[in-house]
Amino acid sequence: MGLLHIPGKKMNPRAAPYILLVISAVQGFRYSELEQHVNSKQEEYVEALREWVAIESDSSNVLKRPDLHHMMEKAAQKLRLMGGMVELVDIGQQELPDGQTLALPKVVTAQFGSDPNKRTVCIYGHVDVQPAKMDDGWATDPYNLTDINGNLYGRGASDNKAPVLAWIHAVEAYQALHMELPVNVKFIIEGMEETGSNGLEDMIVAQRDIFFSDVDYIIISDCGWLSRRPALTYGTRGNCYFFAEIEGPKQDLHSGVYGGTVIEPMTDLIGILDTLIDPNGKILIPGIREAVAPLSDEEWKMYQDIQFDLENYKNKIGVDQLMYNSKVDLLAHMWRYPTVSIHGIQGAFSDHGTKTVIPAKVVAKFSIRQVPNMDPAVVKKQVTDYLHLVFSKRKSPNKLKVTMVIGAKPWLADTQDPVFEAGKAAIKRVFNVDPDLIREGATIPIARTFQDVTGKSIIMMPIGGFDDGLHSQNEKMSRYNYIEGTKYFIAYLHEVSLIKKTSV
Ligand SMILES: *[C@@H]1O[C@H](CO)[C@@H](O)[C@H](O)[C@H]1NC(C)=O
Ligand SMILES: [Zn+2]
Questions:
Q1: Where in the chain is the domain with CATH 3.30.70.360?
Q2: Cα separation of 188 and 79, whole Å?
């Protein structure tokens, strides 16, 4: 190490500790040491994931609530042992359909560093999981992490336990090598994501001027890449979920005895459902298509460069034909156009065999994915008015009731934001490629909540593979994505620290 020259100033020997600090700050990013550290820790990281996957933290099953509490405690303990300022925040009770209440899993918050001269990032993640049983068709025990050819199979491996651990290990790596964290790092880890993040929004609102006050950027790593090429995610669709109920006779009827004399609720329901979307995917509800932000030339061009294999996609879902034949059309309709999906009909006969019933009351469940510039409140009115109009033309004596039970807005970030530049630089360093900039067709409501409540920049930095099987049988996380993803997060903490404090 050479001598440090400060022009025009004589060196004061008593300033040595200060100068040393300056030297280490200007010395540059010792990435290769961190990278080697991660390589040497690979088995420990896999062990940590094994321990987390072994906890059946299924938030949808009330019988598993003790496991979920245990999971939150375990995450908190790991962060505490690293010297973080950790809190388990009580977010109250959950009301069950039978009227009973159940304690919600506490939200874990943690903080590493509070230097006002540094940027502060806040990492959001969840450690609850979807249900899984061997009977569902898993090849291995979903709660016993199993390594097959470098893929780590287990429920929650990709969604979202490995990404949360990768962030924790990223912080740990700096600590282990006695390197100062380039930014202050906060964590917010919840345990109800898979069932709608019950209680989290209130907590974020309550913490807006406390926990979030000094946060510059919020990072979410709860989704996946689109192909083998790393990706940054800058948008998600929202979702409006509807119930359309048609009620007719006071009880179910025999179709032999009454068929032909009554106006059947199911026929009415199928009739109006068929007016929502045409066979070519065109939404027929007035006003919906008009609200969609037009696809810009820039966006169209960007989609062309994205790595996405149509044949692979068809094989994965087992179909010969898709709604669109070109990559750009397909990506656009996956991410930035709305669609209608009909999910089911409650009250309909759906068992095996034959039953000659006329159901007296049927409730259709359908949803409409939301994109900019749709507004759920407006969509609710458009759908309700339209279905009532269509139904009135049938001149049916039955009663129609339309309700919207979920109204989640879409989220869209500005990819020119410095947080995305930092993400691109980190990916370039670790993977030596430029990332795809992608959107997510599914809804991650928390992104929009963070944006609306805190006003901070949000970035999604997935490390999951495109074929991880989230919410499905045989969910996995590859060792490659897990370990390289940890390096990527390490690099990101450096890159994001370079964003000038004054650039607001
Ligand atoms: C997990 O699977 C391995 C390999 O099949 C087995 O040896 C081990 O006993 C299992 N562990 C648990 C906790 O079931
Ligand atoms: Zn998730």
A1: 239-292+337-408
A2: 11
Classify domain 239-292+337-408 at the CATH topology level.
Answer: Alpha-Beta Plaits (3.30.70)
Catalytic residue among 35, 58, 67, 128: 128
Strands 146-148 and 151-153: antiparallel
User: Whose atoms come closest to the Cα of 144: which ligand?
Assistant: 1
**Side chain identity at residue 486, one-letter code:** T
Here the tokens at position 458 are 């949000």
Is residue 22 scored above 90 in pLDDT?
Answer: no
Asked if 457 contacts 417 with a C-beta cutoff of 8 angstroms, the reply is yes
Per-residue model confidence (pLDDT) at position 23: 44
pTM: 0.88
Return d(Cα 190, Cα 204) in angstroms, integer.
11
Which residue minimizes the CA distance to atom 4 of ligand 1? 146
Q: Which of 145, 235, 194, 150 is nearest to 471 (CA)?
A: 194
> Does residue 144's CB lie within 6 angstroms of at least one atom of ligand 1?
yes
CATH match for 2-236+410-497 among 3.40.718.10, 3.40.50.2300, 3.30.2270.10, 3.40.630.10: 3.40.630.10
**Phi-psi category of 353—alpha, beta or left, where left has phi over 0 and alpha has psi -120 to 50?**
left
* 114 Cβ closer than 6 Å to some ligand 1 atom: no
Letter for the amino acid at 441? G
Q: What pLDDT is stored for residue 122 in this prediction?
A: 98
Domain with CATH 3.40.630.10 in the chain: 2-236+410-497
Mean pLDDT of 182-209: 96
Using only C-alpha atoms, what is the Rg of the chain? 26
Encoded amino acid at 431, one letter: F
Q: Is 312 in the pocket of ligand 1 (CB under 6 A)?
A: no
Active site residue 35: no
Ligand 1 atom nearest the C-alpha of 145 is 1
